Amino acid sequence: MKGSLATSTVLHVLVLGFALSSFSAPRTLEVADVEALPVSIVPIEEITQMQQGDKTAPLAEIAAPIPTARPDPVADAENAGDNTVDLKSSKSAKPSPQEVVSEAPPKPAEKPVPVPEPAPKAPEPPQAAEAEPAPAPEKPAEPAPAPEEVAALPPESAPDPVAEAITEAEPAKPDFAALPSVGPVPQARPEPPKETAKAPAKPTAATETAKAPAKPAAAAETASTKDSDFNADEVAALLNKQDAKGGGAKRSTETASLGASRTTRGNTLSQSEMDALRGQIQRNWNIIPGMADGGDVRVTVTMKLDPSGNIVGQPDVVATGGSEGVRRTLSGSARRAVLKSQPYQLPQEKYDSWAEVVVNFDPSQMF
Amino acid sequence: MEQVGLAATSEVTLWSLFMQAGFVVKLVMLGLIGASIWTWAIVADKWVSFAKFRRQLDQFEQVFWSGQSLEELYRTLSDRKSSGMSAIFVSAMREWKKSFERGAKSPIGLQMRIDKAMDVTLAREADALEARLGSLATIGSAAPFIGLFGTVVGIMTSFQAIAGSKSTNLAVVAPGIAEALLATAIGLLAAIPAVIAYNKFSADAGKLSARMEGFTDEFSGILSRQIDERLSARPAAE
Question: Carries keyword Signal (chain A) (predicted)?
Fold first, then answer.
C-alpha cells in the first residue's frame, strides 16, 4: 500500500506540475465595443400644455410673446400684435352671414327712431306699424319718388329733411343689403322685426323702399357715415386671408420667451374639476335604497356637451350586470341624474376635453 | 478577497486561481487533491494485488488438480505465507491433521470443524480483497459535494467582495467565480476515477470470492469423502 501511495503521489505531482506549467491563462476574449443606444422619454405635456411665446426665443421663467410697440391694452385680445382690433386667424376670417347680420341690426334700431320725428310728410309709416301687410303694397308706390330724390340729391347737400331722413336710414340698410349680397339674403330678414319691436314699420318700410335705389348710394354713404368705421374693420378682417398670428391686439411688454403662438392648456381636467363634475351629477342621482343585487350593476352614460355645458342630443346609457329590472331602474335614474345636472359648470377653455363625457355609475357604494 | 478587483488585470492561470482563493476554498481544494491521491493509490494497490491474487489462484488450482498428494501439498504450502485458496486449503488441512492426531471419534464433528475453519479463512480472504473499496465509494459519492461546497463558498465570498467594490463589471466578477469553480473541477476529478474504480474492483472482488467459495465447497466435499473412508476403514481394522 505504501508503494502504491507513493506512486499515486508522484503521479499527481507530475500531472499537477504539467497542468500548472502548460495550462496558462486562456486567451483573452475579444469583445467588440457596442455603442449603447440612448433612449429618452419625452413627456407629451410639451405639446399639449404650452404657453404663449415666441418660437425662436430662449426659454424664460415668465412666458411672454414678442414685445409689442403699442402699450394700450385691448380687452379680450388673444393674438399678440400692434393692431387695434384683434385679428383672428383665417378660420374666423371666413365670412359668416350670421355674424354680419347680428351686428348690423343694432344700427337700424337706433337710426329709425329719429326718422319718424323729422319726417312729417310720412303719415303712412305709423299705419304701417298697425297693419304691416297692408302698407307694404302702398309703400312701393310712394318710395318710387324717393329714389329719384336720393339719386339726385346725394351729390349736393341734403336740402330736404325727408330725403335726409331716408338717406340716413338707408346707410344701415345699404351695407346691410350690400353684405348679404355676398352671402344668402333671406337670413337678414328675420332679424330686424325682432330687434325693433317698437317701430318695426320704419325699418321694414325703409328696407323695401331702399332695396332698389340704395345700392348706388351705398358706396358713397358708407364712407361718410360713422357706422362705416366699424364695418371697414370688419371688412378688412374679412378680407385678410393671411394668418393673423402675431397681428393681434394683445399687448406684451415682457421679453419674448420660448412658447407657442397661443396658450394651450392641454386636454386634462384637473382633479378638482372632475370632482366638481362628479358632485354635480351625484347631487341629482337618486336611487331606491335596498334594491336587491343592485350593487352588481354598472351604468355608463356617454353624453356630448355643447360649450355652454348642456347636453347635445340624448345621453347614451349602457347598463351591465344585475337583473333586467334593476338594470332598467338604475339606468333610468342615471339618465335622469345626468339630464337634471345640466348645465355643467366646466372650464370653458378646456371644452375640447369635456365635449364628450363618459360617466360611470357604480351603485355598489350606495346601498 | 480584497484582491478580487485586482485579479481582473492579473493572470488567470491555475496557480493564480488557487492562490487567490479564500482559506476555506483552499482547504477544500487541498482535501480533494488528497482524496484524489488516495484514490489513485488504492487503484494502483488493488490493481497489483488483484492481479497477483488471480495468478496465485490459477497456480494453486493447477497444482491442486494435478493429482499431487494432499499431504505433500500441505507440507510445501504450510511453510510459506499463503493467501487465497492456498490459505483455505492450509487451514482445512491443519484442522484435519489436529483432529486425526488426537483421534477424533465423531465424523460429523470433524466435518463441522473443518467447514468452520474454511469459512473463517474465506471470510478473511474476502475481507482482504474488499479492503479500502469502501473509501473509494465514499470519495466517489462525496467528492462532488465537497467540491460544490468549495464553489458555493468561493462564489459567496467573491460576491461579497463585488458588493464591496461596488462594480458589476464582468472582469471583476469572473475571476472569483472561475476560482470557485476550480473546487468543483477538482472534486469531479477525484470522484470520477473513484466511482469507476470502485465499480470495477468490487465486481472483481465478487468474482474472486465466488471462485474461492466454489473451491471451499469442492474441498469440503473431498474431505468429507476422506473422513468417511478413514472412519469406515478404522473400525474394520480394530
Answer: yes
